[in-house]
Design a protein that fits this description.
Largest sheet: 4 strands, antiparallel
Structural class: alpha+beta
Number of strands: 7
Strand content: 25-35%
Order of helices and strands: EHHHEEEHEHEEH
Number of helices: 6
Strand order of the largest sheet: 1-2-3-4
Distance between the termini: 14 Å
Radius of gyration: 15 Å
Helix content: 25-40%
């Protein structure tokens, strides 16, 4: 896959109907226990506003992900318990892009936003989440309770990310 085809853009730059479709995609919703009821376009617009406000509040937040100019999903960093928490949700048509998208986001997080560590909180519905995360140096970091739901949490330090980049440049 060509990295040049990948763009991180403001969520507000995407038509709300496209965001609503991805938020309501059943294959995504089963791993998004905090979503609740299906999104209307009005609810999705409020969701976008809340996500975008994180940029002003925290200096970081989620992006829209475009592949070849097409909205592929959303992801980025959200503040959870004082830490930047990596999230990524892709339209199922773009699932093969997850590695490249997450790598780009982690590069931005550590290189541009200067994070010392990030976490990833994955719902219990995810089978063997440690396998993919361990490849990049994430280590188990207990559990997190977000909105009354329990998640497995994993941590990645800037040092571990840098070691990963040096030890396996084809991955990083």
């Amino acid at each position: 896959m060509l990295d040049a085809d990948l763009e991180l853009a403001p969520l507000s730059s995407v038509p709300i109907a496209d965001i609503t479709r991805v938020l309501n995609e059943p294959r995504n919703a089963r791993h998004m226990p905090l979503v609740g009821e299906p999104f209307t376009e009005d609810a999705a617009a409020r969701w976008v506003a809340a996500k975008e406000s994180q940029w002003q509040e925290n200096g970081y937040g989620p992006w829209a992900v475009r592949v070849g100019g097409i909205f592929a999903g959303w992801g980025g960093f959200q503040e959870e318990e004082g830490m930047p928490d990596l999230a990524l949700v892709l339209d199922p048509r773009f699932r093969g892009w997850g590695h490249d998208v997450a790598r780009r986001m982690l590069d931005v997080g550590f290189d541009e936003l200067r994070f010392t560590a990030v976490v990833a909180a994955l719902p219990l519905s995810r089978a063997q989440p440690h396998v993919a995360l361990a490849r990049w140096g994430f280590t188990p970091d207990g559990e997190a309770s977000i909105g009354g739901t329990t998640f497995r949490r994993f941590r990645l330090t800037a040092e571990a990310w840098a070691r990963h980049q040096v030890s396996d440049p084809s991955e990083g």
